[in-house]
Amino acid sequence: MLGKGVGVGGTKAPKPSFVSYVRPEEIHTNNQEVAEKEVALHLLPGEQLLCEASTVLKYVQEDACQHGIYGKLICTDFKIAFLSDDDSTLDNDVCETQFKNKVIGENEITLHCVDQIYGVFDEKKKTLFGQLKKYPEKLIIHCKDLRVFHFGLRYTKEEEVKRIVSGIIHHTQAPKLLKRLFLFSYAATAQDKPVRDPQNHTVMFDTLQDWCWELERTRGNMKYKAVSVNKGYKVCERLPAYFVIPIPLPEEEVPRFQGHGIPIWCWSCHNGCALLKMSALPKEQDDGILQIQKSFLDGIYRIIHRPPYENVKTEDLSSNFLSLQEIQSAYSKFKQLFLIDNSTEFWDTDIKWFSLLESSSWLDIVRRCLKKAIEIAECLEAQNMNILLLEENASDLCCLLSSLVQVMMDPHCRTRVGFQSLVQKEWIMGGHCFLDRCNHLRQSDKEEVPMFLLFLDCVWQLMHQHPPAFEFTETYLTVLSDSLYIPIFSTFFFNSPHQKDINMHHQRQLSLPLTQSKSSPKRGFFREETDHLIKNLLGKRISKLINPSDELQDSFREFYDSWHSKPSDHHGLLLPRIEGPEVKVWAQRYLRWIPEAQILGGGRVATMSKLLEMMAEVQSLQEKIEERNNSQGALQAKAPSLLRNSARLSSLFPFALLQRHSSKPVLPTSGWKTLGDEEDLAKREDEFVDLGDV
Amino acid sequence: MWWGGRGHSFNIAPQKDNPELGLSAPKSIQGSGMPEPRRNQLGSCLTSGCLSGEQILAWAPGIRKGLEPELPGTLICTNLRVTFQPCGWQRSQDTPLSSEYDFALVNIGQIEAVSGLSRVQLLRPGSLLKFIPEEILIHGRDFRLLRVGFEAGGLKPQAFQVTMAIVKAKAQSSQGQQYAGIILSKAGQSSASRNPPIPLLETSEDWETERKKQGARDWRVSTVNERFDLATSLSRYFWVPKRTLDSEVRRTFGHFHQSRGPRLSWHHPAGSDLLRSGGFCTASDPNKEDIRAVESMLQAGHSDVVLVDTMDELPSLADVQLAHSKLRTLCQPDSSAAEDKWLSVLEGTRWLDYIRSCLRKASDITVLVTSRVRSVVLQEHSDRDFNGLLSSLVQLLSAPEARTLLGFQSLVQREWVAAGHPFLTRFGETTASEEAPVFLLFLDCVWQLLQQFPAEFEFSEFFLLALHDSVRVPDTLTFLRDTPWERGKQSGQSNSYTKVYTPGYCQLPAGDSINPQLSVWNWSLRYSNEQRLQFHNPGYDPESCPDSWLPRQQSSFTVPGPPSSVWLFSRGALTPLNQLCPWRDSSSMLAISSRWFPRPAISSESMADQEWGLPSHWGACPLPAGLLLPRCLGPQIKLWKRCYLRGRPEIQMGLLAPTISGLQDELAHLQELLRKWTPRINNS
Predict the structure, then answer these.
(1) What residues of chain A lie within 8 A of the CB of B539, using their CB?
(2) DSSP assigned state of A424
(3) Mean model confidence pLDDT for chain A
């Protein structure tokens, strides 16, 4: 008996610890099924099973009635997974298998994706943390990607309940050491080596060459130079090994305040104006030091104020813009609108939807970010001024605004490769503290701020208003936001390039591919077929720079109005509309797990599939014409047939699976009695009592 | 006038000798104020577009502002409309009216005159302009905005005059008034004939054809109301169960409010019937035989009957009106709502909330109609507002053919126009203060469906906008009358009965004032060919709705006896009823509003046997592919920006999404290229 379990599990992950978690009675219950289930659990290289519990009831979320599917709840050092006892749920529609996420299954949650865990004790919901005295009858897991899982534990053996609940709480809520991140064990075991496509690759900005190339691309090399003064992180651990500073600035100045107070180049506009950032000098009480700081800064300012540099406008982001606390509290209110425990609750809040949405002020924060970015774009574009972003560490709002401005002004950043390079440049090399901001290690809740998500939301607003200007789609952004919590990609799991380099160092000796694949969460995350969706067919990669405009306006409003009164050039400057009705909820990201939000056969996907069909037709016609033109053997047209066969996709595609649709959900469930189900439960309960006695 | 005594005061004057429709005052303006020389120059140009009986009251050169590009042209006020005529623009012979540049006088909601930055005057009827305007803003009641700046220098009196003329003409206009003498040009007619015409349902043949199309074999066309003597608000013809005699129809309908008894609205291909009916007349005291007849008409041969209380959970007429006017205030360009408070103000209008309830209710009813073969009766007291809204929505949700251009127009014609929706009253142009834009609420609901299912509709948002804007254009009678009877009178439709009974009709100068064939569906009156091409949704994918209806069970008209189950659908739940009609037992108790007696708690087990009580049953029956179930969550009900925010050009971002139509152009272009290439290759 024991051998069976180990044998099957062992083929995947030969961990001795596995044995200790399997109790004879578990195998008792359903020999045959257990064996089959072990096959279904897919473990990644290096993944270890920690604990499990059987006969867990996963509730179907869509209605208040208490029915669901039985299965096994498993916690590994990478994820929490639920394996259904009912095999029929596995072979669902074509879409499910076709568009399955390769890493995370429908019933799987990575440990980092867990947001809050609640337990239900006698109908009362309580937050679970630390050591528990009493174990709940129901476990509710809120995920950071806004999924909500309900697991009923009433029919699970007490011991198993204890083990699984405390296991899950411990592995998701307790502070963790960086070394314990799953990505290290994955890296140590993973074998596959991603191939780096030399032509179409994301620029990592981890070599001097990459920076020089970027300077050349934006024609910033006349006034700025790439420096390697921080090679080996000698000067400062916060900054990347290579970065760009104004040419007249002596490299020796950089180390004086560990890189603080140094204007660092982000991007150059076509007219030569540049976007710079600077981390503020440490606050000092001592007058002497203050004096030194002042003279240092004066020197710096003198350099960048002198020709060939344009006028500099300083934007102090720490003092008169959003505060991080504001963002975090807005998001925590905002996300509650989507973390729905059951449908009834949703209908209750639905009447006040708009005012609840407004009171969270998340959309207003998005609007303020967009507005600030437009202001900066206006200075660069219309007033020919350099912009110097100033922030305490230059790694939060600086990253957000500088990358947002570049998405608006540089069409290259609206291609997929360009966008990935931008994230790499501004966020990864810019030293955004992903580890702290995502609270991956659960060490301090105070540091948690969804900065990167806010950035993606802002980009989404732009994309939603100007879809043809982007090569990628919102699905790409959504998948990108999800990869923040998948610890097999190292991209979003460090606070700085320095931290990553020292931690991944010994891995590199093993010549493992992680450093190269760091920005690949997007590539191949879904199976190939979905790439059509992720890659916007309309966006074309255009490296054309913005046409110089000779208009010189002095106010934001004029700039904004005049841009919007002209037909927009999708390969030039792109400004979002920021009026009240124009800033919207990113429905795909936030609503995708709510069954009530699913429009069967509707939504944007319906238009998209039509578009794809027409694109295929255009392509084949174009090929035919070419064929006749050249009268040569032509290439076989391969039309993207992905959406053809699946006649009716839902609006939540590709995230929600096509649920077997019942006609019922439109009706409130008030009058219903689920007699059948309850009887069923009662029977099962009896069975277990019997078993226990045996 | 000949129908003046009927209680409605429509200001329609088809007589030729009084073409200016009682507008005599503006004559003086016209005579005295216009600088004559210029008038002669422009005269022919301006009058060329005039309709018969239309008179130019005043005009002034100006520049249309707010929209790109700014257009120089002439602002003209006539006794029928305000028009901005761009320089060099000629009215096409085919489209005598312009959807873009015309503002019917009744459509004018608010007029503002602006001078400088600070002087703004709101012009009410009878108010006198206090300064010479530099700019005039005309806010349409259909949310459009016409903003014209006047040229400076020498022409100031004209600016003043045209503004005053508009204010006066507006004050004297009324909804009942109609453009006279619009006749479809030959070109327009020929282009119209390419598409099958929309059945106006004014003849019994139309009704018969439609009945056959729906496959309603157990129904027939009743001619009992042919002379409108049963009910003026009902259409001449309607569908009743085959086995019901006309005399029975006449008797039973008398027991309903305004004689609007139960009639077939739509026959579901799988066998169910959707009926609509007015409220029971609680005052009447039918005999047993009548009650039986009423019951069998409601039952329509099915053993399972569901009565739907239409008004339950839906807004009242006053609610709709209030919400709409709040919405208009919010959407006006000078709306005071701050950007960060916009959403809660929008919520405060409750307009979206009402849309949500309509959609929710409609999809509930759709499920009722689809899930089992039964008779579903929509019952509203007046049967003229929300019954039409719900029944149209149900058909849009369940029948793919209702989502085609032709199908949708016939749907509106049948469920709104022929069914007697009081358009004139609801758009606030009669003395009755029952203004409520229920029809616009319906259009918004359809727009929501279009948003949610972009590939399922043959028509586009632009078409819905065109329909939205048509309700106040007085070109055809479709939306200008309250009842089919009035419409029939006016359009001069005569048959032998009317001739005998109302001899006045014979002398009606039919065809003189209006072409009786004209309806709102003659789009070429107002929309150019290019515009009409935009009515088609390029994303429409008709193949995605296969005809998958299989008749579930033969509808059993032969089943005698009372229905085996009777339910009331209210508050989203089914309640069993012990009888269909309120009169049978104790009429005194039934007279009060709570006329329904829920069956005294029969054991819930037997209730669960009814399929409604047991959700698992529902799951087992998968919904057919052609059925749409809209989602009504807060984030999914959206504001129809392209309609309501048109007055705020800074928000407008192009009427249609450019991408898909651009792609279609490209496709057409390539196909053209290919055609050109093909013969050459073959020849060589």
Answers:
(1) 606-607, 610-611
(2) I
(3) 76
Of B539, B572, B604, the CB nearest to A673: B604
Strand partners, B274: B266, B376
Find chain A residues with C-beta within 8 A of B313's C-beta.
none
Q: Which of B355, B408, B667 is nearest to B535 (CA)?
A: B408
Peptide bond between residue A308 and the one before it cis (omega within 30 degrees of 0): yes
Q: What distance in Å separates the CA atoms of residue B69 and residue A129, rounded to the nearest whole number?
A: 63
B667 touches chain A (CB under 8 A): yes
ipTM at complex level: 0.73
Q: Which pair of structure tokens corresponds to residue A658?
A: 């096509």
Cα B165 to Cα A472: distance, rounded to the nearest angstrom: 55
Structure confidence by residue, pLDDT tens digits, A539-596:
333 322 223 333 333 578 888 888 887 777 888 999 998 887 888 999 889 988 887 7
Beta bridge partners of A224: A246
Please state the domain extents for chain B. Answer: 49-174, 302-490+519-547+559-576, 648-676
Domains with residue ranges and CATH for chain A: 49-88+100-174 (2.30.29.30), 208-507 (no CATH)
Determine the average pLDDT of the residues in A230-249. Answer: 91
Per CB-CB distance under 8 Å, the chain B contacts of A670 are 571-573
Q: What's the pLDDT tens digit per position in A330-382?
A: 999 999 888 877 666 666 667 788 888 999 999 999 999 999 999 999 999 98
Nearest CA in chain A to B658: A468
The structure's pTM equals 0.79
Question: Which strands, in side-by-side order, build the sheet including A274-279?
Answer: A264-268, A274-279, A386-391, A312-316
List beta partners, residue A295: none
Which pLDDT belongs to residue A379?
92
- Torsion angle, CA of B39/B40/B41/B43, rounded to 10 degrees? 70
Q: What is the mean pLDDT of chain B?
A: 74
Q: Which residue has the tokens 């077929």?
A: A529
Q: Give the gap in angstroms from C-alpha A508 to the nearest C-alpha of chain B.
A: 47
DSSP state letter for B219: E
- CA–CA dist B84, B74 (Å, integer): 6
State both tokens at B411: 């749907």
Chain B: residue nearest A357 by CA?
A: B343
**B618 to chain A nearest CA, in Å?**
6
Architecture of domain B49-174 in CATH? Roll (2.30)
- Note the residue count of chain B: 684
Sheet containing strand B108-115, edge to edge, reads B102-104, B81-86, B71-78, B56-64, B145-150, B135-140, B108-115, B119-123
SS3 A515: helix
Residues A560-569: contacts with CB under 8 Å, at least 24 apart: A560/A374, A560/A378, A561/B650, A564/B650, A565/B68, A566/B68, A568/A466, A568/A469
What does residue B309 show for φ and ψ, rounded to 5 degrees?
-80, 100
B624's tokens: 């057919």
Which residues 28-47 of B have a C-beta within 8 angstroms of A? none
Give the DSSP H or E segment for A680. Answer: helix A675-693
- Is residue B629 scored above 70 in pLDDT? yes
| Bridge pairing between strands B565-570 and B304-309 | parallel
The label of the residue with tokens 């920690």 reads A50
**For residue range A428-487, what is the model confidence (pLDDT) as tens digits?**
999 999 999 999 888 888 889 999 999 999 999 999 988 889 999 888 999 899 989 988
Q: How far apart are CA A16 and CA B604, in angstroms?
A: 55
Distance, CA of A389 to CA of A375 (rounded, Å): 12
A627 vs A621: CA distance, rounded Å = 10
Query: What DSSP line would sit under A276-338, residue for residue?
Result: EEEEPPPP---HHHHHHHHHHHHHHHHHHHSTTS--EEEEETTTSS--HHHHHHHHHHHHHTT
* Cα–Cα distance for residue pair A397/B176, rounded to 1 Å: 61
